[in-house]
């Protein structure tokens, strides 16, 4: 076998590698600054806890660490090319663990010390960031900050504080067990190796794995070959066959349905991360049970994608109607369909749910209100039963008055679907949307057979154009007739084209004498009445017409994005109106209010989460005092703060009564 001459790659135990007396690492000046946020630290700690709880044969792989020997004469240092973010974060975790146990467990503290500092100089850390940040990093890891630095802010300080907040003394041995099960491939380059080319090969070759591919790997990870074949053949392949190219959408919709939370797709592997959070451990027994459920829902998803496969014509027709609006409501429909197939939801109730969904989406589209980020709140409401769901839908469904005004002056959304249902036409094949007054009339067009378009005043022409796309001026017409109607004046359409149509609402136009703005308005009023009858709004106490977002559906943003200080216009807290403009103030106000109103929920949440409530200011940073014996740590990033707000409100049972109103800045962030 021919061996490589310029690359040495060895699989190593990460803690053993760091503890080696010969290991000393320097980050070159050209490397980017340390950027890991609390979300990354949270995931690393979760991975370490998971591998600590597994049996001895399981380890956790940290990928590769790429370095080269220092070119300085007599130096044994490794120059880090790839892996700075992981190694730096790992050192901060080890430092937090060491500082936690140094008084209670000197033996463990000594082992951790060997990972952190050089044998020849205990005042220096084994990892040395580039000069701009080396002093800050070492002061955090070695816990030697001066009094004047107590309020200093840096990523090192924030992430170290996070790890300190999460590690309890009684958990320290378990965390240490997990750390000792970390492995990576140590790649050391020779003097003649092209470091940049190797770095690009490791990080840029090929397409990144998609969410469903990551889920697939995660599900099969740790199983024997025979177990993998069983899960693959009995569960995964049927899911792939049922969902096809829409498999990514299936997993996202399944997770929204089960968690009742929106799942972010772009930029953060959101679907995969949500899957791991929902299924943190999958031994073979629980995997079989979960996989059977996934397969059953994929069977339903197949029917939603192709409603013709539904067993009954009535349900198939309603599912096809829902597909007019896209797949955004699939999480809610999947759950309702499952309940129907189990016999816990009658066909009439299921159809009523599908009708309510159509009414919600059509009415919001008609009045120009966004329809995104609605389904998670409705999935949560569904857990409370059919009545709770109807109330939740009604709350965000625009009123008859708003719809009536919008239909009078605005373009009709989903025109073929709306006109087809009004006319009782299910099959729209061979039908076009016809404009009675054409969008681009010729000079000879006439609405009454006497005056030509060229003779209309400017005001008359502008009035006609303004109403051209409204419901009163459009109808369905067979494609064989649309060519004849294209340039025809209204009298010709009335006498020769519309009477022979199979569409009832089109034939009605043959009874109209002249076509004018008054005729359009009269027909708009008639069709609007039918719209409000077909797409009814469930009875409700109140309507959320102000674009309020439930707190559980608020957008989690990493770090502190530009404009965060004016993200919100206001907050509605259990009927109270709060002038709160940013997540930091909201975080502080929510926890203080709940400390007064629901203290057990705050204590329970914080104990389970590992913060943000503590009985002492155990490290430097931004703190707020709740009472002389309890302190709220304020040094988190915006994503962590919002997650904590959502979690503690959920714990207290108040989440459904708290809403945020995004400012125009927040909506654009």
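Q: What amino acid sequence fits the structure above?
A:
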């Amino acid at each position: 076998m021919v061996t490589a001459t310029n690359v040495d790659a060895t699989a190593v135990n990460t803690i053993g590698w760091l503890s080696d007396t010969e290991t000393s690492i320097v980050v070159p000046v050209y490397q980017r600054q340390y950027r890991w946020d609390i979300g990354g630290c949270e995931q690393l700690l979760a991975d370490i806890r998971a591998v600590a709880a597994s049996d001895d044969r399981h380890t956790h792989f940290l990928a590769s660490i790429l370095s080269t020997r220092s070119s300085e004469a007599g130096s044994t240092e490794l120059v880090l090319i790839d892996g700075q973010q992981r190694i730096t974060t790992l050192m901060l975790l080890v430092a937090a663990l060491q500082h936690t146990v140094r008084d209670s467990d000197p033996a463990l503290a000594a082992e951790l010390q060997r990972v952190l500092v050089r044998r020849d100089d205990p005042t220096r850390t084994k990892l040395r960031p580039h000069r701009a940040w080396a002093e800050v990093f070492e002061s955090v890891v070695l816990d030697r900050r001066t009094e004047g630095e107590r309020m200093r802010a840096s990523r090192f300080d924030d992430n170290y504080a996070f790890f300190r907040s999460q590690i309890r003394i009684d958990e320290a041995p378990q965390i240490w067990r997990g750390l000792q099960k970390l492995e990576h491939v140590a790649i050391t380059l020779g003097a003649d190796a092209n470091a940049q080319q190797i770095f690009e090969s490791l990080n840029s070759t090929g397409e990144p794995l998609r969410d469903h591919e990551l889920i697939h790997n995660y599900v099969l990870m740790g199983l024997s070959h025979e177990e993998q074949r069983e899960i693959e053949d009995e569960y995964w392949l049927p899911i792939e066959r049922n969902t096809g190219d829409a498999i990514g959408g299936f997993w996202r919709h399944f997770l929204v349905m089960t968690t009742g939370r929106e799942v972010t797709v772009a930029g953060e592997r959101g679907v995969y991360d949500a899957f791991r959070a929902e299924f943190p451990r999958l031994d073979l027994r629980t995997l079989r049970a979960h996989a059977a459920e996934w397969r059953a829902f994929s069977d339903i998803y197949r029917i939603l994608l192709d409603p013709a496969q539904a067993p009954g014509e009535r349900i198939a027709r309603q599912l096809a109607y829902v597909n007019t609006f896209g797949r955004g409501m699939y999480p809610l429909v999947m759950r309702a369909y499952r309940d129907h197939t189990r016999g816990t939801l009658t066909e009439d109730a299921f159809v009523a749910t599908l009708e309510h969904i159509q009414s919600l989406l059509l009415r919001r589209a008609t009045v120009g209100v966004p329809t995104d980020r609605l389904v998670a709140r409705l999935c949560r409401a569904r857990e409370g039963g059919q009545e709770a769901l109807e109330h939740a839908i009604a709350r965000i469904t625009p009123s008859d008055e708003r719809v009536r005004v919008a239909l009078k002056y605005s373009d009709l959304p989903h025109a073929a679907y709306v006109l087809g249902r009004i006319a009782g036409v299910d099959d729209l094949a061979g039908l076009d949307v016809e404009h009675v007054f054409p969008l681009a009339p010729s000079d000879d067009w006439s609405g009454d057979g006497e005056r030509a378009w060229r003779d209309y005043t400017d005001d008359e022409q502008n009035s006609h154009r303004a109403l051209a796309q409204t419901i009163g001026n459009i109808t369905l017409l067979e494609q064989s007739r649309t060519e004849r109607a294209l340039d025809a004046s209204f009298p010709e359409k009335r006498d020769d084209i519309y009477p022979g149509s199979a569409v009832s609402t089109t034939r009605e136009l043959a009874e109209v004498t002249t076509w004018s703005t008054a005729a359009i308005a009269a027909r708009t009023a008639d069709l609007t009445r039918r719209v409000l009858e077909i797409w009814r709004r469930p009875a409700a106490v109140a309507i959320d017409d102000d674009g309020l977002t439930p707190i559980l559906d608020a957008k989690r943003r990493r770090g502190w994005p530009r404009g965060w200080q004016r993200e919100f216009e206001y907050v509605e807290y259990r009927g109270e109106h709060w002038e709160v403009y940013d997540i930091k103030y909201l975080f502080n106000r929510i926890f203080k209010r709940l400390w007064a109103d629901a203290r057990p929920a705050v204590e329970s949440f914080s104990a389970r989460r590992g913060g943000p409530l503590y009985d002492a200011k155990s490290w430097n940073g931004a703190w707020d005092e709740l009472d002389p014996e309890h302190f709220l740590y304020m040094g988190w990033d915006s994503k962590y703060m919002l997650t904590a707000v959502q979690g503690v409100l959920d714990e207290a049972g108040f989440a459904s009564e708290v809403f945020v109103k995004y400012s125009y800045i927040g909506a654009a962030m």
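Q: And what stands out in the fold?
A: Residues 205 and 461 are 60 Å apart (CA to CA).
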